[in-house]
Specification:
Layout: H1 5-18, E1 64-71, E2 76-82, H2 84-87, E3 99-107, E4 125-136, E5 152-157, E6 163-164, H3 170-174, H4 188-193, E7 218-225, E8 230-236, H5 238-243, E9 253-261, E10 279-290, E11 306-311, E12 317-318, H6 324-328, H7 342-346
Antiparallel strand pairs: 1-2, 2-3, 3-4, 4-5, 5-6, 7-8, 8-9, 9-10, 10-11, 11-12
Bound molecules: heme C (2 copies).
Residues 202-203, 223, 225, 232, 234, 254-256, 286-288, 308-310, 320, 322-324, 327-328, 339-341 line the site of one heme C (HEC).
């Protein structure tokens, strides 16, 4: 691998000039025009990508695997992943922070070097050789207009996360996909096609199953709902409890039992010695579950990788007109992860 020293030096210089208030838009000094000079970018985009600007996208496989391309001609399988910033971007563009990763695998071959196919007639991924990254950040892509890919940068990495040198003209090739609504990506339409449906009102039991064992989960909190005269017990499985201090891990299941409150002769809730509502019958079991591949919905409606559903107390799916995803998007912010009772689960 080439010496990283020149790269480090220019990054240090970039940070020291960035102290003057501009947070590092350009990669060369004095090119932003604010100091009276009009010099534009003078460098062509580098062959093989730019490791001085982008780092290995740790955890990229936690993103959505939105498409897989079989390359029969050169016996490769290419798997494309998008991170949350990309998945939550508007329909016709990608926001800053978007990272698109292409894993390049060799395809499995038989003794004669011919490709082996699975039962769906797809190539079988054998060995991962390259992790290719495109990343969009404000101020990236400070290259001559003939070579820049907007604010996208490219790089190849080895599967263990090391910088990988390459002589390929990433920017030159991906320039073919310049233009509105393509974002220099060859698989932009596949990414957007992955999320064309709005999240369903009332949830879905297509993917989410009734968690039979939910009574073994930890009881996180009980909510007296005065507006609806209900008592709500909220349970979290161990995956959810163990990960609640950060973003909930895949495999998290949160269950809310919704009881009607016991009412007196005047239709008022009866309270116990502590002033809490008392339970009457169990009316609904509400479930949310997070898994890889869940949440394949439009950016405006999805709840990350969560799915929702209502069930009858006996576990049969219950139709509902409640807009689960819409309401739980109130909790879309950092550290909330679409869950109203996150603090209570974290406190367990
Ligand atoms: C010869 C043209 C060419 C070159 C050079 C090239 N790419 Fe690509 N790239 C493609 C094509 C075509 C696809 C779509 C998938 C496919 O068919 O393999 C793609 C897909 C990708 C993707 C997935 C997102 C997308 O655009 O669909 C990433 C990430 C990527 N390339 C990164 C790189 C990096 C990093 C380099 C340079 C080290 C590079 N590419 C060089 C043609 C090229
Ligand atoms: C009107 C807004 C609203 C709608 C619609 C809604 N929820 Fe909720 N949900 C809440 C609130 C608020 C809580 C917190 C507990 C409480 O106050 O009842 C909650 C809690 C939950 C919980 C416990 C985890 C948490 O976020 O605290 C689950 C599970 C749940 N809802 C599932 C569903 C399902 C399934 C649907 C759709 C069938 C749905 N919700 C529709 C507002 C809503």
């Amino acid at each position: 691998m080439k010496s990283r020293l020149p790269g480090l030096l220019s990054v240090l210089l970039l940070f020291s000039t960035a102290c003057s208030g501009d947070d590092g838009g350009g990669t060369d000094s004095g090119t932003d025009g604010t100091d009276g000079t009009t010099a534009g970018p003078v460098e062509d985009a580098p062959l093989g990508g730019n490791h001085e600007v982008v780092d290995f996208p740790d955890g990229y496989a936690n993103g959505a695997l939105y498409t897989t391309v079989d390359k029969v001609d050169n016996l490769q399988v290419r798997r494309m992943f998008a991170n949350d910033a990309a998945l939550n971007s508007p329909a016709d563009s990608l926001d800053y922070g978007s990272k698109i990763v292409m894993e390049i695998w060799s395809a499995m071959t038989d003794g004669d070097g011919n490709p082996v196919y699975d039962d769906q007639n797809r190539l079988i991924a054998d060995e991962l050789s390259i992790v290719a990254l495109m990343e969009k950040q404000e101020g990236f892509g400070n290259y001559t207009p003939e070579t820049a890919n907007g604010e996208w940068e490219h790089a190849f990495f080895s599967p263990d996360g090391q910088d990988m040198a390459s002589e390929l003209d990433c920017y030159g090739c991906h320039l073919e996909m310049a233009g509105p609504s393509t974002e220099y990506m060859f698989t932009f339409s596949q990414l957007k096609a992955w999320q064309t449906e709005p999240a369903p009102v009332g949830g879905t039991t297509d993917l989410l199953n009734f968690p039979d064992e939910y009574l073994t989960y930890a009881l996180a909190t009980t909510v007296d709902k005065e507006s609806t005269n209900q008592v709500r017990d909220i349970y979290a499985n161990s995956v959810a409890v163990d990960s609640a201090d950060g973003e909930f891990a895949r495999g998290s299941i949160i269950v809310m039992e919704i009881y009607n409150a016991l009412l007196d002769g005047n239709e008022q809730p009866v309270v116990d010695m502590d002033g809490n509502f008392m339970k009457d019958d169990l009316a609904i079991i509400a479930v949310m579950e997070k898994q890889q591949g869940f949440g394949n919905y439009t950016p405006e409606t999805r709840n990350g990788e969560w799915e929702h559903a209502f069930f009858e107390p006996d576990g049969t799916p219950m139709a509902s007109e409640a807009d689960c995803y819409g309401c739980h998007r109130e909790m879309a912010g950092e550290g909330l992860d679409f869950v109203f009772s996150k603090a209570a689960i974290e406190a367990l």
